[in-house]
Amino acid sequence: MKKRVFSQAAPAGTREQRLSELLERLRRESETYLGYPNNQLLDHQNLAPFLDLVINNIGDPEIGNFGLHTCEFEREVIAFFSELYRLSAAEGWGYVTNGGTESNLHGLLTGRERFPGAPLLFSEDSHYSVEKAGRLLGLNREPVRSSPNGEIDYEALEATLSRLRPPAVILNANIGTTMKGAIDDVPRIIETLRRKNINRYYIHCDAALFGGFLPFLPGAPCVDFSLPIDSIAISGHKFIGSGIPAGRMSTAFAGTSTTSAPSTERSPVPATGYRC
């Protein structure tokens, strides 16, 4: 096994020279940047002054109990996507996460709190963060075979439900898989659950890839809260565009979280603490 070296001498050159070289390299490589669905048409010059401030939207964006926060803007982001996905303020809650992985983690956490002991079902084409979140949450993870186009295989889903015979289910539905852009048929999934007499279910929609634009496309599949779904994750650094690759505009909607944190005064709460 190769030995890891955690300390080494700093490269030659002044700090200014090194930063200049780094900027030049990043700009050069951005011209031929392929393989990740990130929107690079960015201009954040008007936001540069905020980098000199320590901003923290800790906890529930409805409160904003840390002095230096931007929760009023965060609430506007949530309100925009809530209206877009037909979720009224009285029915749901959301916040800007640090990326799609946190969005999925929070959605599945809420599912676990609602249905303790329920298995997590997800297709083999799901983003790796779904399985990772399930592992972190201690869920019984049941991958379901995918169809060639990347959708969940609905016959395989029904067979898995027949084998498990669970009283409740947590299910991840993909709204644009990473490699194939497949959209799981949520109404068909719900129909399958009900046909198997499973009426206690939590459906989390991972819409990191397509969530920013799908509602604007004529004839696109309807995936919103007019269906009995429970949470949705939307990435900000892909279609929408954000200079922070973590996806600072990713949004997870969840209306029934039972987690709590006294320091943030109320529930529900984000999966992480420090946010900006």
Descriptive overview:
The chain has a single domain, classed as Aspartate Aminotransferase, domain 2, CATH 3.40.640.10. Helix 4 links the parallel strand 2 and strand 3. It has a 7-stranded mixed sheet, with helices on both faces. Helix content is 27%, strand content 11%. With 276 residues, it is an alpha/beta fold. About 8% of the residues have low confidence. It starts with 14 loop residues before the first helix and ends in a 23-residue tail after the last strand. The protein is globular. The chain is built from 6 helices and 7 strands. Helix 3 packs across helix 4.
Brief overview, please?
The chain is of the alpha/beta class and 276 residues long. The chain has one domain (53-264): Type I PLP-dependent aspartate aminotransferase-like (Major domain) (Aspartate Aminotransferase, domain 2, 3-Layer(aba) Sandwich). It has helices at residues 15-30, 71-84, 100-114, 128-136, 154-164, 186-195; strands at 94-96, 120-123, 141-144, 169-174, 201-206, 231-234, 251-253.
